[in-house]
Design goal:
Layout: H1 2-10, E1 16-17, E2 30-31, H2 49-61, H3 67-72, E3 75-77, H4 81-90, H5 97-117, E4 123-126, H6 135-138, H7 148-170, E5 177-180, H8 182-196, H9 201-206
Parallel strand pairs: 1-2, 3-4, 4-5
Pfam families: Lipase_GDSL
Family: Belongs to the 'GDSL' lipolytic enzyme family.
Keywords: Hydrolase, Lipid degradation, Lipid metabolism
């Protein structure tokens, strides 16, 4: 859904799912995302970010996309949430979360550098949304409230990622990588709706 909204906002055709690569026109781009996956392996058995970039590289090697195609494209990277959900559900006391955040963001940064090395000149990476507000997590409060303690995880994640992106852009002559602030966008949307209507907004989201 995230990519659908992005394509709609940019007024372009929705990229084709990679699963349909052999039967569809790929000139509008490809969506390599696989629901439930992340930077590392998660609870979902599917291609992680590294494997998805492998698939992107293969299309370039097969000349499905040439140098000009890649340079003029916008590469959107939105990942990390499923990794933290997997970690939280596995280790509920959050022991070792600080080291995990550093490891995950460093791996994500390496993947961004690799995407750039493939010729991409316009890369957008999303900051992590407030995971304490996700249904899988907020069920602990019966969807009454976000779990604020867990929202410290994306705050730390985003702080490190912003610094890493700044450092990456210093490596090249122009700023290739931009960030999209999903964290504050999510919180703003939740707060606006809570002010304008009665009832439990988080519960309503789950039951839509």
């Amino acid at each position: 859904m995230y990519l659908l909204y992005t394509a709609s906002f940019l007024k372009i055709e929705t990229p084709t799912s990679y699963a349909l690569k052999n039967s569809s026109n790929l000139q509008n781009g490809v969506n390599f995302a696989f629901g439930g996956t992340g930077v590392f392996q998660t609870r979902v058995d599917g291609p992680n970010l590294t494997a998805q970039i492998d698939s992107f590289e293969q299309l370039i090697k097969k000349n499905v996309y040439n140098k000009s195609d890649v340079e003029s494209s916008i590469v959107v990277v939105n990942t990390g949430g499923n990794d933290y959900i997997t970690f939280i559900l596995k280790d509920r006391n959050l022991f070792g979360i600080a080291n995990y955040i550093k490891s995950l963001v460093n791996e994500l940064t390496a993947n961004l550098r690799r995407i750039r090395s493939l010729g991409a000149e316009k890369i957008v990476v999303s900051l992590l949304q407030p995971v304490g507000c996700l249904p899988t997590i907020s069920v602990a409060s019966l969807y009454r409230n976000c779990i604020d303690l867990l929202n410290n995880v994306p705050k730390d994640h985003n702080k490190i990622l912003l610094q890493n992106v700044e450092d990456l852009n210093k490596e090249s002559e122009k700023s290739v990588i931009k960030t999209l602030d999903l964290y504050n966008a999510f919180l703003s949307a939740i707060e606006d709706v809570q002010k304008s209507q009665k009832g439990n907004f988080l519960y309503a989201l789950v039951n839509q």
